[in-house]
Amino acid sequence: MAILGSMAAPRSPLSRLFTVLLAGVLAGLVLAVAALPGNLLLGLTARSALGSYAALPASLKTPATPQRSYLYANDGKTLITTFYDVNRTDVPLSEIAPVMRQAIVAAEDRRFYDHGGADLRGLARALVANVKGGGTEQGGSTLTMQYVRNVLKTDPTRTAEERAAATDPTVGRKIQEIRYASALDKSLGKDEILDRYLNIAYFGSGAYGIAAASQRYFGKPPAQLTLAESALLAGLVQSPDAYSPISGDKDEALARRSYVLDSMVATNAITAAQAAQAKAEPLALHPTAQPNGCTAVSQGHDDWGFFCDYLRQWWLTQPAFGATVAEREQALRSGGYTVVTSLDPKIQATAQKQATKVYGYDNKRALPIAAVQPGTGRVLAMAVNRHYSLADNPGGQANHPNTVNPLISGGASVDGYQAGSTFKLFTMLAALESGRTLSTGFDAPAKLPTRYAAEGPGSCDGHWCPANANPDWMDGYRMMWDGFGRSVNTYFVWLAEQVGQDKVVQMAQRLGITFRADSDANFAKDNAANWGSFTLGVAATTPLDLANAYATVAAEGTYCTPVPVVSVTGADGTKVPVGQPSCKRVLDADVARAATDAARCPVGQQSAFGQCNGGTATGVNDILDGRPVAGKTGSSEENSTETFVGFTPQVAVAGIAANPDDPADSVGSAVQTKVIDAVARVIATAVKGQPEKAFAAPSRELAGDARRPVERPTVPERRQDPTTDDPRSALQRWLDRRG
Fold first, then answer.
1. Distance CA 536, CA 350 (A)
2. Coil, strand, or helix at residue 576?
3. Phi/psi at 708 (5° precision)
4. In terms of C-beta distances under 8 Å and separation of at least 24 residues, what long-range contacts does 185-190 make, across chains too?
5. How many Å apart are CA 89 and CA 199, to the nearest integer?
6. Distance between CA atoms of 666 and 643, rounded to whole angstroms?
7. 706-734 pLDDT, tens per residue?
8. Which residues contact 206 (CB under 8 A, 6 or more apart)?
9. What is the overall mean pLDDT for the chain?
């Protein structure tokens, strides 16, 4: 490599001055030792290094080179994306093709295995030639000296001024480089130095290190490089940008390849015949651009971007990656981490297919879906009918088809969506925890006057007066089983009043419901006892929060903080202690089992005590082929949103149909059947191939005295819904849309 600039670059006056000065400093030494045998010269060089390994900067002993971080799906193989400031990944020498090692030595430092880190004989020869002039400068830096320079100019622990000084055209800097190289050579083996060099050298087109270069130019790992490919890459390091066959001069790249092949013949690494054959090979590039960040996920999988963004936000909260958010961000982009995420590609694919089946990418309405694993909190899928992209949208379309807003997990400008009667679960849990039983009965009226003052159409004599959506099917004596199964509003408003609305709000928070909207957060903090409509799901939530809340019940009362990773491994192979399930018991197991028993009713299954007599999502049982499942539908006022959340012991999935940009845009009741179907099919994919697990029955003590005639559903008005192609009866479709 040239001491200053590329070999083709004209020398500046400063370059000439530096060369002359350095030549003067070394001239005496060169003249004194020029006639000495090679081994004696090496010994003299080592003894005159004027430094020791102990005195080296820490970065030269243990280089802190920035490396790319990789994000994989939960199989540890499916690449989601990478993060980097510098496109680099370190690999051991054993994973680099032998011809690549031979090529770089032949191209840059033929006497690498003979000198002591600083090749004074070669340096003197280059200096003399450069002083004489002739249009080009000759190289004199060894691989070890180049390595020193590369480390010091990229060391993230040094200041910008210190990094710039690593390439200053001064005599002092060059002598220091020689000292450092000699000290390294005395302490490290040649293979270790070669390995470090190959992992830090710049090969052009944004690729730092041989692993990145091999992928960038040929789309393969460095262990698979051929002789012709190795020679091409080795030829690039002298002038990476100029010789890059992707962004530079292809003819120059091929000329350099020929030079390297001839050098390999000269060093006896290959034969002349092998060189001729490699020279005859055409330039066969397979350029591969490494994705960088969440907006650069694999082609055809831009839906993974929403999960990627959720993981990034989680990462920025983890102290293990730095004391500040800025440090954690830098760690992700330069720490060389291997992150095996919790994303399940099969579940994600089904969730995305179902979300886009209900609404297309360009629809203003959306169906965000989240899947969570009970007992661990691991997030298995996050899908929505949107492209995770910064691309522009058509005029007037704020979030479709492209957006990077967290529509599934919430945060930033996304507070969430009303989830309707799915919040009745929290009322039931609070009631069970207070000592009430599943058989707690109430003669639910069509309308229930409450103590909460209210005006308008929904009031009765100045008080809030909630009503049942289908009085003929919902009114009458109800217990928790059929009150939940038929989604009887007046039963649950009455039950919440008995327990205390504040207890219901607290229960929701214990199970992970986060109030992101200021109005909800303030009401929960200051006036929870008077939040009469809370049980009907008027607070905004997200599919992820809702799925995880129901996952807590599926795990028999064990709440786990949602987590998007399975493991994180540092660049040195050390496991980082993050991403393990963080769980705690928030409910008595029997209380959770009792709630699950009632939650069998909505989905067309039977409770352990035979008290289910109708449900709002009975088709789920057919989709799951009778496998134990539980869940709940939810319709907000005027059908602004439609929700379904279902769970088995192995997975909990929630989907909410809404307009993220306009809460006043009602999605309508007709879509509820489709939402139920979509969520159920995601559950079916998640449990496919897994052993069937039954829900544990609650105690008879918590079930209470359930002796009463089991009511059968009355027949509501039959009507054909022209917006659905559901083959089930009109009665069943009507029932499925209620709740």
1. 30
2. coil
3. -165, 160
4. 185/46, 185/115, 185/116, 185/117, 185/118, 185/144, 186/46, 186/49, 186/53, 186/116, 186/117, 187/53, 190/112, 190/113
5. 7
6. 13
7. 765 444 433 333 222 322 233 333 333 33
8. 87, 212, 216
9. 86
